[in-house]
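Researcher: I'd like a candidate sequence for this fold, 140 residues long. If you have to choose between options at a position, lean toward the conservative one.
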């Protein structure tokens, strides 16, 4: 039995590991509660925790309040709307950006000309080949 070829290392594996290494601490910091909330004492309750658990397990679940009590009625306030912000000013391209766009335009034009030249040359060679084949005489 032939030995198996060794798998090639993936080129993106170090980048993925570095990304995960950097993102994991950030995610842990984002998911932890803020330090002010952790340091704030919990409100004192008159009933100990064990009695609260017993009382809550024996009480039936409270029914949600009727829809009218969920939110107070809204009053429509007609506010004066602000005018829309002025349109942003058009940013002019600097010299380097304009030069780069000019070079890109020249490159596109040269590719179009080269493609047209090659297509014309191929058409011309096919035409010459057909003319040569039709004018040749058999070698018998």
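Model: Candidate sequence:
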């Amino acid at each position: 039995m032939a030995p198996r070829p060794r798998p090639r290392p993936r080129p993106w594996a170090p980048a993925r590991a570095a990304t995960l290494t950097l993102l994991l601490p950030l995610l842990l910091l984002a998911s932890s509660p803020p330090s002010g909330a952790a340091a704030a004492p919990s409100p004192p309750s008159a009933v100990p925790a064990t009695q609260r658990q017993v009382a809550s397990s024996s009480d039936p679940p409270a029914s949600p309040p009727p829809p009218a009590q969920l939110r107070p009625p809204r009053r429509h306030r007609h506010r004066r709307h602000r005018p829309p912000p002025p349109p942003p000013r058009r940013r002019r391209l600097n010299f380097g950006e304009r030069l780069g766009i000019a070079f890109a335009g020249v490159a596109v034009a040269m590719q179009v000309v080269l493609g047209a030249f090659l297509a014309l040359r191929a058409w011309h060679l096919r035409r010459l080949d057909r003319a040569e084949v039709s004018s040749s005489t058999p070698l018998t």
